[in-house]
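# nightly structure sweep
# worker-07 picked up a monomer target from the shared queue
# config: single-sequence mode, recycle default, output format = structure tokens
# input follows
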Amino acid sequence: MTYLSKILREPSPGRLSFWCPGCGQSHEIQHGAGPGPRWGWNGDVERPTFTPSVLVRSGHHVPGYDGRGCWCDFNAELKANGEEPCDFRCEVCHIFVTDGQIQFLSDCTHALAGQTVPMVEFPEGRQC
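# output follows
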């Protein structure tokens, strides 16, 4: 793990992670040469730009979801049993990252949908 700046980490060569204040977790992209999806990166560790947009889906929002349980179901079961829900959620986070600003598109399922905010530092104790 390489700490490139307060807002950007390199978990392994060709991968970058940043903290998403909408999801409350890190998102990761791949850049440079190599297999799999790749994003462009302007090389700026303080005011990064990634192209094209970043789309993160979890739980029942993942294409091909077969309907057999998801985080919504798991958390509903925990609540029904009087337990605290876990940190995992079924979400869509669709963003543009431009000059250190995160533009949350309207298809995001969290509270920052439709807003643009500056990138934030990783919470204390979180590496990626």
